[in-house]
């Protein structure tokens, strides 16, 4: 790649929340960005934000847990933007419940979107990274990987993504590809708002209660996570691989 050529980044779940902030941030870093989400039309706001700022982006509708849709999405990205060499596996869902009430389908949905989705996307994109001799993969883990009541499915998926990340780093390092995981704590998005709704709390009260238990005394914003992802996907981060960075306003154990 010449130094003037623009790298192509793919952000899944980019219609809103952390994915949208990440797509906007990577575009500001000079990347052309493919914004993938279940509903292509829902990516419009993110794409418009990027193009209004002079950046380049396309909206792509795909379910990351569906192999054929992933293959078609990556083929479209190659045709419309060029071969992708940056991948942020961010798409995610919650299906919280205590173990004894958790349905098999809620287990499968969460494992399929987070783990199978990240596997399928990475498998489809890595060949372009290998060809380019350069790649950056960032997987979204979570503080819940350490265990969280009501999230047997989600914590298993997020812990699984940490093992997946480390294995990618080991297998793909020799091709100039790094893989890292960002594990957010509480970030104010539709996802945490849905949790507030589920436990019957107003979102402002829910955020205030969460902030009280965080050393920096505030909840995170999507841009806090986008900032960490920008670091890991940067040209200069080629010696940082296989790491899990908790971005949670304080230490976690
Ligand atoms: P969000 O606001 O719920 O956004 C997630 C996006 O992913 C939505 O636009 C959603 O589309 C999309 N999506 C869901 N399933 C998909 C699929 N199968 N294929 C393609 N797109 C799909 O969530 P967020 O809070 O920004 O979270 C982003 C990531 O960070 C997730 O992996 C999450 O687990 C992780 N995380 C978040 C927090 C937090 O506090 N918010 C903390 C730790 C980790 P629909 O709207 O159509 O469902």
Ligand roster: NADP nicotinamide-adenine-dinucleotide phosphate
Number of strands: 7
Helix/strand/pairing category: alpha/beta
CATH superfamily: NAD(P)-binding Rossmann-like Domain
Main sheet: strands, sense, barrel: 7 strands, parallel
GO molecular function: 3-oxoacyl-[acyl-carrier-protein] reductase (NADPH) activity
Enzyme class: oxidoreductase
EC number: 1.1.1.100
Pfam families: adh_short_C2
Write a concise synopsis of the structure shown.
This protein has 253 residues and is an alpha/beta fold. The protein contains 8 helices and 7 strands. Helix 1 packs across helix 8.
Which short descriptors sum up this protein?
253 residues, seven-stranded parallel beta sheet, binds NADP nicotinamide-adenine-dinucleotide phosphate
Compile the SSE list and pairings:
Blueprint: E1 8-12, H1 17-28, E2 32-37, H2 44-52, E3 57-61, H3 67-80, E4 84-89, H4 104-132, E5 135-140, H5 152-172, E6 177-184, H6 190-198, H7 203-212, H8 222-233, E7 244-247
Parallel strand pairs: 1-2, 1-4, 2-3, 4-5, 5-6, 6-7
The structure holds NADP nicotinamide-adenine-dinucleotide phosphate (NAP).
NADP nicotinamide-adenine-dinucleotide phosphate (NAP) binds next to helix 1, strand 2, helix 4 and helix 6.
Tell me what you see in this structure.
The mean pLDDT is 97. The chain is an alpha/beta fold. Helix 4 (104-132) packs parallel to helix 5 (152-172). Helix 1 (17-28) links the parallel strand 1 and strand 2 (32-37). It has one domain (8-185, 220-247): Rossmann fold (3-Layer(aba) Sandwich), CATH 3.40.50.720. Helices cover 46% and strands 16% of the residues. The site of NADP nicotinamide-adenine-dinucleotide phosphate has 29 residues, from helix 1, strand 2, helix 4 and helix 6.
């Amino acid at each position: 790649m010449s130094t003037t050529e623009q790298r192509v980044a793919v952000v899944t779940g980019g219609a809103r929340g952390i994915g949208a902030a990440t797509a906007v941030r990577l575009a500001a870093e000079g990347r052309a960005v493919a914004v993938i989400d279940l509903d292509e039309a829902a990516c419009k706001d993110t794409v418009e934000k990027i193009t209004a700022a002079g950046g380049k982006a396309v909206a792509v509708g795909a379910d990351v847990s569906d192999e054929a849709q992933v293959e078609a999405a990556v083929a479209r990205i190659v045709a419309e933007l060029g071969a992708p060499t940056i991948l942020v596996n961010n798409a995610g869902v919650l299906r919280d419940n205590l173990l004894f009430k958790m349905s098999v389908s809620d287990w499968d949905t969460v494992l399929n979107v987070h783990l199978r989705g990240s596997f399928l996307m990475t498998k489809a994109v890595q060949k372009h990274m290998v060809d380019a001799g350069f790649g950056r993969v960032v997987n979204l883990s979570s503080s819940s990987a350490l265990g969280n009541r009501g999230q047997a499915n989600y914590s298993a998926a997020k812990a699984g993504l940490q093992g997946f990340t480390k294995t990618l780093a080991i297998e793909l390092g020799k091709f100039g590809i790094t893989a890292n995981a960002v594990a957010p704590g509480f970030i104010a998005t539709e996802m945490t708002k849905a949790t507030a709704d589920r436990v019957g709390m107003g979102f402002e009260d829910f955020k205030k209660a969460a902030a009280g238990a965080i050393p920096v005394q505030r909840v995170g914003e999507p841009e806090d996570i986008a900032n960490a992802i920008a670091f890991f996907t940067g040209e200069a981060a080629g010696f940082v691989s296989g790491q899990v960075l908790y971005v949670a306003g304080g230490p976690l154990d």
